[in-house]
Amino acid sequence: MNSKPLLPRPITGEEALRWLKKGNQRYVKNLLESDKLENNLNLVEEQDPFAIILGCSDARVPVEIIFDQGLGDLFVIRVAGNIVAPSQIGSIEFAVEKFGTRLVVVLGHSNCGAVTACVDALINPEKYYTPNLQSIVDRIRPSVYNLHELATATGVDIDAQELVDRSISANVRMSVSQLKHGSRLLEDMYRSGELLIVGAEYDITTGVVEFLED
């Protein structure tokens, strides 16, 4: 069991971001701190997450593990395609107000099935999805549409995989923008520097999380 003393919880968004980056480096190097996910009875009464992660539901993206964080460290919201809808915004507002968490990360990942479905729907308009799945595709569509239109305007064959890869990044950036501008609370805190909102992509093959520049 790891007996190292607990470090002070990050206070600012920048400090929290550094913690996540270091945790991912440990994960990639297979240097995980062994007791991170052990049951902690101190969490029964309260939690104190230092970062909020809006990630994808994909089973290959276990957020606490890839950032080498423990129970209670991260406030995680998972939905197919890491999309932004009122319930996701409300969950983030709750964590920001309740716990004073000052970092929000929108985490996309390679080979995202939801983004792939959206690209497939644009390339093959006759494709049928259930109404509920279609609602997810429709939220991703704006981030993919311009890329698809640009590709088709050139008159060359569309490389579907390249379009998916570029769309994953575009979808993350769109979700980040929606969080920055889709909530008065989050927007005011972001503009004042109290809240850091960033995008990132997890590479399923390498395990590396790359944080996106604005």
> What sort of overall outline do the alpha carbons produce when their principal axes are compared?
globular
Assembly level? single chain
Order of helices and strands: HEHEHEHHHHEE
Name the CATH architecture of the domain at 13-111 and 172-211: 3-Layer(aba) Sandwich
Structural class: alpha/beta
- Average pLDDT: 89
What is the CATH H-level superfamily of the domain at 13-111 and 172-211?
Carbonic anhydrase
How many distinct beta strands? 5
- Low-pLDDT segments: none
User: What's the number of helices?
Assistant: 7
Q: What is the CATH top level name of the domain at 13-111 and 172-211?
A: Alpha Beta
- Beta-sheet strand percentage? 5-15%
CATH topology of the domain at 13-111 and 172-211: Beta-carbonic Anhydrase, Chain A
Radius of gyration (Å): 18 Å
Provide structural commentary:
- The protein is α/β, with parallel strands linked by helices.
- It has a domain at 13-111 and 172-211: Carbonic anhydrase (Beta-carbonic Anhydrase, Chain A), CATH 3.40.1050.
- 46% of the residues lie in helices and 13% in strands.
- The protein has helices at residues 13-28, 63-66, 86-99, 113-123, 131-153, 160-181, 184-192, and strands spanning 51-55, 74-78, 103-109, 196-202, 209-211.
- Strand 1, helix 2 and strand 2 (74-78) form a beta-alpha-beta unit.
- Helix 4 (113-123) crosses helix 5 (131-153) and helix 4 (113-123) crosses helix 6.
- It is globular, with a radius of gyration of 18 Å.
- The mean pLDDT is 89.
